[in-house]
Design a protein that fits this description.
Blueprint lengths: L1 H68 L2 H12 L15
């Protein structure tokens, strides 16, 4: 009667080892998946940080332009460029067109 117990004991140990092996394999697959996802998220994070930096630079440029647009120099430049206005004592020399 001892033989059936040994078989049951061996089968039980085999099943436990098999369950542990399946758990280890499943954990390994999950870890690999999470590492790949982590790398993708790191790339996305770097891209978003670059986009934020670019947006900050653009915002700074717009603020500088806004400051310039509130100056007398801007008004004079626009009057000269778009309306062709000049000061009475100013001489305008234009190149000849061929």
């Amino acid at each position: 009667m001892k033989r059936p117990r040994r078989r049951q004991s061996r089968i039980g140990i085999f099943l436990i080892v098999l369950a542990m092996l399946a758990t280890v394999i499943a954990s390994g697959v999950r870890v690999a998946h999470l590492r790949a996802k982590s790398q993708r998220l790191a790339v996305t994070e770097r891209q978003l940080e670059d986009d934020i930096d670019e947006a900050k630079k653009e915002a700074e440029a717009l603020e500088e332009k806004e400051k310039y647009m509130q100056t007398k120099k801007y008004i004079e430049d626009e009057a000269k460029d778009k309306l062709g206005l000049v000061y009475p004592d100013e001489i305008v020399i234009e190149p000849r067109e061929k």
